[in-house]
Specification:
By secondary structure, the protein is mainly β. The protein has no helices and four strands. The chain has one domain.
Length: about 70
Amino acid sequence: MAVGQPVFASGLRGVDTPADGQFIWEWWHQFQVTDNIRITQALFYLPRPMGELTPGGSSFLQLGGLIKTTFVF
């Protein structure tokens, strides 16, 4: 599992504090099928990818998945 947060301004002169403290979450698992084949599953979640630009009253979020197969010769 990994959690990340982009750099954002926590205070600006003459302006309210921006509400841009969003996090990015990722979960993954790698499964070794044989000596030469690996399968990786991943799931990622971005609760507020637009930060403070998210329209009011909106709960915009991104959820995605990935399945990757790696062959090594």
